[in-house]
Amino acid sequence: MPDVPALPQPLRWSTATAAFQIEGARTEDGRGRSVWDAWVDTPGKVVDGATADPAADSYHRWADDVALLAGLGVDRYRFSISWTRVQPDGSGRVNTAGLDYYSRLVDDLLDAGVTPFPTLYHWDLPIPLHEAGGWTERDTVARFTEYTELVAARLGDRVHDWYTVNEPAMTTLQGYAVGELAPGEFLLFDALSTAHHQLLAHGHAMRVLREHGATAVGLPNNHTRVLRLHDTDADAAAAAAYDAIHNRMFADPILTGTYPDLPGIDTRIPVRDGDMEIISTPPDFYGVNFYNPTTVTAPAPDIPIPFEMVPTPGAPVTGFGEQWPIVPAALRDLLVDFATRYENLPPIVISENGASFPEPDVCSSPIDDVDRISYLDGHLRAVAEAMDAGVRIDEYTVWSLLDNFEWADGYTQRFGLTHVDFATGTRTPKSSYDWYRAVIAENRR
């Protein structure tokens, strides 16, 4: 096990989960159906044919999870609130049982000395809203604002730290552009309207949450350091194009109030008067979910987009293979670039960072997950280097507290600091759990 990294300034420490991935209980207590329920119930959509029930069964075992958090010594817990558990149809009637569940979780976290840090939207769009156009339609912004009001009215007396919309980049690019994730649309660049509507929903949600006493609100987006395969002008242009569509398309509107130029791409973004002012309302922090860099090269003449993604030469990989290379320095470089690019950058929160590796479904003793420890250690040292370079970083979050249902990969990928036997719900902390606990104790704020 590597030495515990020492950070140059104090950090808050956190770990994260998402409702659909851990809660289970998909048909209990009035919960409605989301686009992810439809996805997993469609044969062939999940690689191992699994569904998200019972997953880690956290709907019933939340007290076990709070105990794990207390044992780690984290400052905060990032979890998500299921829209369909609170408002089954995405509008109209409220499911009191769902709000009661999250209220109990919040109370137990506070009793354990852990600050609740919920995410309002982690991909679980209610089916009726999807059938009405989902994030391609502006009306979804209004529905999300109403949902935010319901949650804030119930929890805002105790919850003051909030994430709004998780990874709008992945919803747009994977969910609507190329159909790799729910809702499985294939709109290509016509999907960019969904980026605008998610960012607008974030802006409106910030206003609602602050009206209910929130003191820290921001958006967590997936960001990647874009590398070019060859040191050529053509590859530089390809890298700039991918950086614009994956990173700047989502960060620029929040941090500068404008969308970036996308050379060669007809964006057709449905901006109305006043939208950009709402989107660029200064957040209290900017959330960065980081897993890996992306290497690109100039596309072949018959490829209709201005870049081609390729494996990163010489990089080790996680359980996802060559699509998730391990290059910790890429996180440092991304953070430094953000601080250079955005003059008024708020404090950065690393809102997700973690890795999956092959592990058994059942364990009789703690798993010695040295590869995960190495990954996290390298990325924490990259955070330290960025801090030394002058980047203000206030918080670091490990994905994930628990092994979970990993979207289209089902139960084939395990990210957890804690092993979960999905047949029994048994939780067994891994070596990485003990390592992270030691990191937190050594660097206690």
Automatic annotation (TrEMBL):
Domain of life: Bacteria
Residues of the active site: E167, E352
EC number of this enzyme: 3.2.1.21
Catalytic activity: Hydrolysis of terminal, non-reducing beta-D-glucosyl residues with release of beta-D-glucose
Protein species of origin: Gordonia humi
Enzyme class: hydrolase
Biological classification of the source: Bacteria, Bacillati, Actinomycetota, Actinomycetes, Mycobacteriales
Example of a GO MF term: beta-glucosidase activity
GO annotations of cellular component type: cytosol
GO biological process entries: cellulose catabolic process
Protein name: Beta-glucosidase
Residue numbers binding substrate: Q21, H122, N166, Y291, W399, E406, W407
Assigned keywords, A-Z: Carbohydrate metabolism, Cellulose degradation, Glycosidase, Hydrolase, Polysaccharide degradation
SUPFAM superfamilies (alphabetical): (Trans)glycosidases
